[in-house]
Amino acid sequence: MEIIIEHLHKNYGKQKVLQDISLHIPVGMYGLLGENGAGKTTLMRILAAMSEPSAGTIRINGIDIKNKKEIRKIIGYLPQEFSVYPNMSVSSALDYLGILAELPKSIRKERINELLKQVNLEPEKNKRFKNLSGGMKRRFGIAQALLNHPKILIIDEPTAGLDPEERLRFYNLLSELAMDRVILLSTHIAGDIEAACTKAAILCAGKVIFEGNIDSLLKLGNGKVYTTILLQKELEEFKQNYHIISIYQNGANISCRFLSNEAPRKEWVSCNPTIEDSYMYLLSDHKMEVE
């Protein structure tokens, strides 16, 4: 099982949304990281056979993306904004979606009960959808995406609005599901990729600026991340010269974590990079090249 994307382009009129995207996405958890507007959702919709590419080729588990009927048989898709009729119960809503997915009545009930257990929603099966918490709604979304036993699961911004505990529970569920299928998830939160994925690609303005394993991404920040102590009056000028990651008030002074390509000054303290540091470095470096 794999997704192979070669020289994919997507235009809306004169606007180039995706430019020459080539990716190989294997079994397991694969992250698609990028800022809002980078083209992640557009790519997800194309892979889910909900939008047409302008150019390029895509093969999902050996099937050409043009064969939408066959693609939809093996794809489960959870968009960023997902809802059902708010007054329907959890089990009724899944049954309704199962009918739309053309699941035979003889297997629908058994499949729904199995999924409710898998996503830990069995105690909530009679609760109305509108009364579910944010985390429960995302788990419901996973359940509906799994109704047809998909080989490929595509999930757009899965932890939007979730608290840290729900995010952890959600990713533990996805990790279990990734044992025997491709799971592609998009996010603008670097920590989500670090928590769940072994490989990732980064999109910036519709282009791939990184593809590889998480360790390789982490190493990009080596020697680029520092902290220093500033006076309040020095902060504005410092902001103009360096990409600041975070600022902490330290009494009368300010502790500043930042990115720099310069040789370090004696008052700078080198830091081990996080995935977010490396991601921010890659984005800022790419934008400087474009400018």
From TrEMBL:
It comes from the Bacteria. The keyword Transport applies. Residues 3-230 form the ABC transporter domain. One of its GO terms (molecular function) is ATP binding. SMART domains: AAA. Coiled coil: none annotated. Pfam families: ABC_tran. Keywords: ATP-binding, Nucleotide-binding, Transport. Belongs to the ABC transporter superfamily. This is ABC transporter ATP-binding protein.
